[in-house]
Every structure is written in C-alpha cells, then in structure tokens.
Amino acid sequence: MGLGAMGKTVLLHLLVSMFLGFWSLSLVKADDPYLYYTWTVTYGTASPLGVPQQVILINGQFPGPKLDVVTNNNIVLNLFNKLDQPFLLTWNGIKQRKNSWQDGLMGTNCPIPPNSNFTYKFQPKDQIGGYTYFPSTLMHKAAGGFGALNVYARPRIPVPYPLPAGDFTLLIGDWYKTSHKALQQYLDSGRTLPFPDGVLINGQTQSSFSGDQGKTYMFRISNVGLSNSLNFKIQGHTLKLVEVEGSNTIQNTYDSLDVHVGQSVSVLVMLDQPPKDYYIVASTRFTKQVLTATSVLHYTNSKTSVSGPVPVDATYRLHWSMQQARTFRWNLTSNAARPNPQGSYHYGKITTTRTIVLSNSAPVINGKQRYAVNRVSYINADTPLKLADYFNIPGVFSLDSIQGVPSGGPAYIATSVMPASLHDFIEVVFQNNENTMQSWHLDGYDFWVVGYGSGQWTQASRKGYNLVDALTRHTAQVYPNSWTTILVSLDNQGMWNLRSAIWERQYLGQQFYLRVYNPIQNLANEYGIPTNALLCGKAVGRHP
Ligand SMILES: *[C@@H]1O[C@H](CO)[C@@H](O)[C@H](O)[C@H]1NC(C)=O
Ligand SMILES: *[C@@H]1O[C@H](CO)[C@@H](O)[C@H](O)[C@H]1NC(C)=O
User: Fold this and answer.
1) May I ask which residue range the UniProt record assigns to the signal sequence (predicted)?
2) What is the DSSP letter of 422?
3) CA nearest 257: which of 248, 272, 269?
C-alpha cells in the first residue's frame, strides 16, 4: 500500500487555520492540510500464535491502522477508550515540537478513562520517515494497539532514491500468548517476564508481500516488540538501507539488519532473483533459544512456493552488530524534510555544554525486581508532571531527584525529573554495566549517535566519536557491558521522557523525564495547554 491509499483511509481537509479553534495559538502554517481520524480502542480475540487470546484492537484492527501522512500535516485524532483500564497512545519518534502536551505518556497526559476520549492534535513538523505508535499505559503494548506511522516527504522535496514500485510496512516483534494483565501481574509481584512465545510480523506468522520481478520495493521495518532485538533478512536478497528514523542514510547494502526494540529502518529491495517465493525472516538476537517468524516475498510471476532452510543468523553476534551499527551514516548531501542537505548542520563542531552519564541497573527494592537509572527507579506520580509543572502544583516531583552521573549507594524509588536548559547541547553517555542488551529512547528529539564502545566509557572514548556523518535517530541500542554516546541539541522545550524501550524495564522504573526549560515563558518556545486537556490527580478542578 503506498501513498495512493491515503485518501481512502482518511478524510483530508484543507482549511484555513483561522477556522479552527484548536490551533488557537496559530503557529501552524495555514496551508498544512488537516487529517481527521476517529479511533476506538477495544478488546478483541485473535490467534496470532495459533491459540485464541485477548488482543487490543483499534477500529477493529490488530495491529492498528497505518497512519500515512505527509510532513507538517496537522493530525486531529479523537481516541475513544473502550477498554476496562485507562489508556494512552504515544507517537514514537514524532518530535511534538513545542508540544509535549501531545506526547501521550503518564508524565505528560492524564490517561483516558474507560468509556471516555481525548483528541490528540499534532504535527510531524519538518519530519520524514517510518515511525510507529503504541500504547504507553501499563502493559497494553503486550496485547497490541500498535501500528505504523509513515511520514512521507512533501511532493516538492525529492527523496534521495528512485521512487519504489511499492511500499511495505513490517511491524516485527516478540510476542506472548499470556494476556497483558497476567504479564503485568508478573511484574507487579516482583518477577521478571518469561521468555516470549514467538515473533510476529504484522500481528501474524503467515503474511505475504507481492512484487514484480525486476522492480524495487521499499520495506519499512519497525521493532514493536517488548524485549528482544531482532535480525531481519530476506532469503536470496540484499537490503539497501535508505532511511533510519528520519535520517536519509548512505545507501549501504546488507544481507541482514539488526533492529532493536523501538527502532525503525527503511530498506530498498530489488526483486532481481529467479521468479519464486522467498522467506522474509525476523529472528531474535542474543538469546539462547532463537524465536523466528517468517513471511513470504512473492514474485508475481512465481509458480514455486518458499523452499530451502529458513535463513537464520547465528544469535550471539554482538561484535558484528556493533560494527554494523557504526556503518549507519548520514547522507550529508541529501535533503530530508526540508530542501537543505542534512549535513548543513555541523553537529560535530558544536561545544557540548554538559555531559550526562546514565547507568542502568536491575536492583531488588523492597523484595521486588525493579530497574533503575543512576540508582533511581522511576514511579509515576498521581498527577502528570507536565500538568504539575504548568499549574505549579507542589509535591509531585522535584528537580533534584536524579543525578546526572552515576553514584554509589542503594537504589530507591522516586518520580525522577532532570532539569535542563533550552538550547543546551548535551552529550549523553549510556553506560551499560549489565550483561543484557539495552535500548534507550528519548521523546521530543532525534539525536546523533556518535559512538558505541565496549567496557567503561572514559573521556578518552571521545576520540572514537563520529563527529562528521553520524545519523540522527530516536532510539539507540547499548550492547552488554558497553556504552553508547549520543549528542542532543535541546531545542524543544517541554517535559520529555527518556526511557528504556524494553517495556518491562520502563514499566519497572528504567526511565525519567528531562524537563527542558526556559524561565521566560514564551509561546514561541512552547505551546500553551490544550483546551481539551484531561485533568486528573492534583490537577482536577484547574482550568486549562
Ligand atoms: C471527545 O469527543 C467529542 C466528540 O465526540 C469531542 O467533542 C470532545 O472534544 C472529545 N474530548 C476530548 C477531551 O478531546
Ligand atoms: C546521497 O544523496 C544524494 C542526493 O540525493 C544522492 O544522489 C546520493 O546517491 C546519496 N549518496 C549515497 C552514498 O547514498
């Protein structure tokens, strides 16, 4: 399904922003089209691994509907919650410029109560690329509610590759037969999640994608799973990497690609093989037992079904994976959402104003398994931090609740918020002293991933940074007993979640909020509270 399908699934209005009460602070350009959606979230039954189980549907679909939009479109999405629990969706990788009000997390929004609704209004401002959305509440993500969110370049912005003959979206992820409530119960009772039961591709184990021999197709691949890095390959074909979370890349060719939890990549695949059917494979990485999902690449002139062994990569290829990550580079001469080269911003020449070192850990607190960052295991407050901040409600969070460097001592539970100044340019080192894979996601931004290394990061590690053509993305992996460094330009005011994309870890505390702040309140820096904001906790009765 390509851009052509867009018109079928959405109602597209071209309205002057004057007409619309929503964008009361009309910083939005009048000519950006409005896309209206009404989504209803319900429970349903599906059998993705052959046995019926409860799943979360959006408008009856599992996975949820694909959102195909264009850079700067105004999305107005009214979400009705028909579950028996409060619910929110978050738009993974949509930067929500000046607008953390729409981020859809427990720190930014009141959850939508059962039988209630909330209308999200947001714009993928100056963004292109393949993204996803998913539930941010409880363990709902384990039951579905996720989907693809593809942001296409505006027609007058050329993409740095020939237009593919078709565009396929593949949501890959590990999967449990156990319900989200039972999985939550595991975690609430102090246990960790068991090993998953399988891997799904678009919510199934037997999908198929058809294309014509000799033509080239785009595959947009996102890891929407809970815990496991996945290796992706197509039997007999190579993958030409063209885009990673909004960055147009140097177009290297790979036999397989590692996609870590929360990440997205787009590749071009030329159907240049003899006409038959080929396996598309997603298999778990770095696990003793390897779980594999296959689907089929079908040549339209094929008369032969898939055959031969399913090609699965060896599992423990940590060094290989780190080496591969280093080959992901920005194409400096291509443009992205705007008609200027990506390399026109010389990130490597900017002096960093601050270094933050974040060390993850897996402490037991009060007899229960938790996860922590710099010794703090995050817990949601009764009031979204963004609302507490806006209404000046005391006692919800404090700005000295987490340190910017690791320190010794026992881990503890707190609602951790780290202060940062608007327009700072920061270096963040993710130091992973655990023997497991990590995946870190920052909302509100994309960041340059400048280095991956083994062991302890030191100041000398900076010598190995890529300060020329590192790509920007929203989720970075950290290998076991290793570090990853990112550079972030803090140009987006708001309350932004920095979390483990590994869902069990974020649920049990491996996250905090970065409050990017400027003491001078100015609507040019940040939008005001939406008039339809839901109020809860200590914000009940306040007036937006
Ligand atoms: C809930 O939906 C109604 C339309 O059915 C809409 O008028 C209202 O603004 C929505 N509520 C919120 C909080 O967005
Ligand atoms: C980078 O982008 C340019 C401009 O769109 C394109 O012509 C070129 O082939 C790309 N280079 C690589 C190495 O991918």
Assistant:
1) 1-30
2) T
3) 269
Q: How many angstroms is it from 249 CA to the middle of ligand 2?
A: 8
**Among 72, 77, 55, 71, which residue's Cα sits nearest to residue 9?**
77
Determine the residue of 22, 36, 78, 79 to mutate for testing ligand 1's pocket, defined as the one with the most ligand atoms within 8 A of the Cβ atom. 78
Whether residue 498 lies inside any domain: the answer is: yes
Rounded mean pLDDT, 157-186:
96
Cβ contact 456:484 at 8 Å: no
C-beta separation of 482 from 360 below 8 A: no
Distance between CA atoms of residues 508 and 368, nearest Å: 10
Residue 319 has φ and ψ, to the nearest 5°, of: -65, -45
- 469 φ, ψ to 5°? -135, 40
pLDDT at 28: 47
What backbone phi and psi angles, to 5 degrees, belong to 174? -70, 160
pLDDT one-digit tens code per residue, 61-100:
999 999 999 999 999 999 999 999 999 999 999 999 999 9
Q: How far apart are CA 276 and CA 385, in angstroms?
A: 55
Which residues does a 6 A CB cutoff place in the pocket of ligand 1? Answer: 78, 117-119, 532, 534
Determine the Cα–Cα distance for residues 191 and 445; give it in Å rounded to an integer.
33
Asked, for residue 416, whether it belongs to a domain, the answer is: yes
Residue 239's closest CA among 225, 223, 259? 259
pLDDT tens track for 133-159: 999 999 999 999 999 999 999 988 989
Cα 96 from Cα 529, distance rounded (Å): 13
* DSSP states along 238-304: -EEEEEETTEEBP--EESEEEE-TT-EEEEEEE--S-SSEEEEEEEESS-SSPPEEEEEEEETT--S
Let me know the angle formed at the C-alpha of 128 by 124 and 129, rounded to the nearest 5 degrees: 115
Distances 327 to 128, 253, 255, 257, 323 between C-alpha atoms, Å: 21, 10, 13, 11, 7
Calculate how far, in angstroms, residue 266's C-alpha sits from the geometric centre of ligand 2: 15
Q: For residue 385, what is the domain's CATH number?
A: 2.60.40.420
Q: Is the minimum distance from the CB of 253 to ligand 2 under 6 angstroms?
A: no
Cβ count near 534 (within 10 Å): 20
Tell me what the mean pLDDT of segment 192-212 comes to: 96
| Domain presence at residue 440 | yes
Strands 412-414 and 511-517 turn out to be unpaired
pTM: 0.94
Question: Which residue, by CA, sits nearest to atom 12 of ligand 1?
Answer: 118
Domain residue limits at 389? 342-539
- Tell me which DSSP letter residue 57 carries: E
Distance (Å, whole) CA 529 – CA 543: 10
Secondary structure class of 99 (helix, strand, coil): coil
Helix residue spans in 372-524 (DSSP H):
385-390, 503-507
User: What residue type is assigned to position 95 of the chain?
Assistant: K
Ligand 1 geometric centre to CA of 10 (Å): 18
CA 138 / ligand 1 centre spacing (Å):
23
Q: What whole-number distance in Å separates Cα of residue 96 and Cα of residue 121? A: 10
Domain count along the chain: 1
Is residue 455 one of the residues assigned to a domain? yes
